[in-house]
Amino acid sequence: MSASVLFDAPGPKARIRNRIYAVVGSLAILALLAVSLMRLADKGHLAPEMWDIFNYAGIRQNIADALLATLKAFALAAVGSLVLGVLLAVARLSDHKPVRWFATAFIEVFRSIPLLITIFAVWVAFLTDYSMWALALGLSVYNGCVQAEVLRAGVNAVPRGQREAAYALGMTKTQVMTSVLLPQAVRSMLPTIISQLVVTLKDTSLGFVILYPELLYSARLIASNTLVNGQYPYVSVIVVFGAIYIALCLALSALATWIEKRGRRSKTGTPVSDSEARAVVLAADAGGAGGIAGALGAPADGPDITKN
Amino acid sequence: MNVLLDHFAEFRNGFIGTVEITAVSSVIALLLGIVVAGFRVSPVPPLRAFGTAWVTLLRNTPLTLLFLVFVFVVPEILFPGMSPFVLASLALGFYTSSFVCEAVRSGIGTVPLGQAEAARSLGLTFSQTLRLIVLPQATRTVLPPLSSIFIALTKNSAIAGAFSVTELFGWQTLMSEQGYAIIPIFLWVAAAYLVITFAISGLFRLLERNLEVAR
Fold this sequence. Notes:
Chain A has 308 residues and is mostly helical. Helix content of chain A is 71%, strand content 0%.
């Protein structure tokens, strides 16, 4: 239902009323912003000195290093989670019961434990001196489980005839999976996979708990170590780092949207129906630092994906 | 085994803390999410723009950064000395409200067109159409995504523990600092979270069954 179905084309009276609402609404929002800015200015957070700190070469270097550290952890986690996701998805679809059970249990357990708890446990238990690897491993385990569910939903959404035709041609189970089912699943689920990668990128900020010097950690470090006018520049630092994060995430999301549009245009793939894909994306997005993807994107012909 | 028996009081406090922050921020997220979803489909352009900006901004910010904003910036704007619990619930509630908003909005999309058209032709206003006709019918389709959103919220509440709120992650760090082995701690905390998330999904399954209609 498009929004316009909910209301009539405005007549003269409604147009005036809407205009009044528009003015009042914008004024309320502007007032809220103005009050916030004034309060911040009163406390001296908008003074030029507070923002001047970003002109120092040292702080710029810090930000560049932190950005690099974030991207490094993200790259490792992205590769790790995709590899683990494929392995777990294949294992969960396996014909061997023990393998299937193991994969199911692994996915269900790690998907329902907060990521922070897993990262901290991995760090303390195995990798105390290697916080980057601890962060990447924790992220890979959690997001690998989510990606596995996404891929499984994708594999189940491939029309049954594809699998049957492949077996009829005499392909082995491995060949059917790797050359027929998985490519089509990846193709139809690519937008969801990328939006889960956006979640992974956001979750790298949990690295600050295990003292990994990524963006958020160095934001806190910079803010708590620079004294300007007798105050700590939390406001300016948070604004700058927030802008960096939002830019990174929007870039990745834009990639997802672009691929989604491109996929819809093509005739060869097996595009998942619109509402279905959106439902999965929504669930995956809800992830934040720990969501359940694919919980409701279960295609009609596939087995139900357990919501836990 | 020992770590739970030795520090059961702290564990209980942590568990209650997690449940509390989950409950409070769920309520905030639900109310805000529905209001913002209403904004996003309203006939008033500035409100629509506000809703879109709200969702885009909050969905693309890491929750941890939002916590920083609420812990360090919001007290400066409102009044200093707000309790970490209140700030953390607000941060979590605001963050989750953007997901609730999107779930509600796509739920509105699933209500058959004829319903809103009929409501309009009866002369109902926009807010009446939304309140009396569309949202009640959208509830059924919104419930399953809401369930996974609230489970995600429960898990996200662990981050509050890093900002000095008493909850289960706080217990984990405390015990690990006191030198207990991490694996049993991890297992107990994991079990506690499983209990909460199962309770939430059970609750939602119950709700879904109650709202089910024979078609």
